[in-house]
Amino acid sequence: MTPLLDLENLQVFYGASQALFGVSLQVHEGQAVALMGRNGMGKSTTIATACRMLPLRAGTVRFGGQDITTAPSFRAARLGIGLVPEGRRCFPNLTVTENLIASARPGQWDLARVQRFFPRLAERKQQLAATLSGGEQQMLAIGRALMTNPRLLMLDEATEGLAPVIRQEIWAAITALKSDGLSILLVDKTLSEILPFADHCVILERGAVAWQGQPKALSPEIVATYLGV
Ligand SMILES: Nc1ncnc2c1ncn2[C@@H]1O[C@H](COP(=O)(O)OP(=O)(O)OP(=O)(O)O)[C@@H](O)[C@H]1O
């Protein structure tokens, strides 16, 4: 079966400094893949490369069987890659509704469905994004990505810095999306939350894949070697 996202041998540089040393990973239709690793190991760089926001020195990005290695990021979005970026990055001076509408593309996710999915966004529809709490901004960032009607949702540290009760709400939302059949690639550092969710884990170490497999195969030794602080 052709993977939905197929990253092959990505080599990515920031100026003279190499960040990715041949990363390969795949996300299949309906799968939830966790991208893991300590700080600075290349997770965000991998996500940004898959969204076509960073140029590659070598390697291939395929989405839905199409080679998009040299495609611009708007084309990746149009083909169905939805990004919830690290730091949320909502438009601070637009209202909640304006933020959502700004990214809308036709499909089953529209304003009404996003507002039903996140009632908090309906309650705060006229409020400027800058005035939302961190958790509400995260809901907005996810809602905005859903408004593009993605085939693959990529989330970079979606629960970072949020209070436990809000983290639970975000995990419940992402889990509902997965149950609905959406394919997901996500970065998160909280093992107790990401392992029950993921179908497959990929661990990066210094810009390369150090281990990959099912969450149940992740031994304490692997955790200590690659994910310990
Ligand atoms: N804009 C940039 N300019 C130069 N180097 C960068 C830039 N962004 C990231 N890097 C470097 O690339 C490497 C990979 O960084 P990346 O942000 O992808 O890691 P990460 O695993 O997502 O880390 P974190 O968990 O801290 O977000 C690091 O060595 C980092 O310092």
Number of helices: 9
Query: Beta fraction of the residues?
Result: 25-35%
The shape, in one word, is globular
Mean pLDDT: 94
Bound molecules: adenosine-5'-triphosphate
Which CATH architecture would you pick?
3-Layer(aba) Sandwich
Largest sheet: 6 strands, mixed
**Tally of DSSP β-strands:** 10
Unreliable runs: none
Secondary structure: helix percent? 25-40%
SSE topology string? EEEHEEHEHHHHEHEHEEH
Reported by name, the CATH topology is Rossmann fold
Could you name the CATH homologous superfamily?
P-loop containing nucleotide triphosphate hydrolases
The chain-level structural class is alpha/beta
Question: What's the arrangement of strands in the largest beta sheet?
Answer: 6-7-8-3-9-10
Family: Belongs to the ABC transporter superfamily.
GO molecular function: ATP binding; ATP hydrolysis activity; branched-chain amino acid transmembrane transporter activity
Keywords: Amino-acid transport, ATP-binding, Nucleotide-binding, Transport
InterPro entries: AAA+_ATPase (IPR003593), ABC_transporter-like_ATP-bd (IPR003439), ABC_transporter-like_CS (IPR017871), BCAA_Transport_ATP-bd_LivF (IPR052156), P-loop_NTPase (IPR027417)
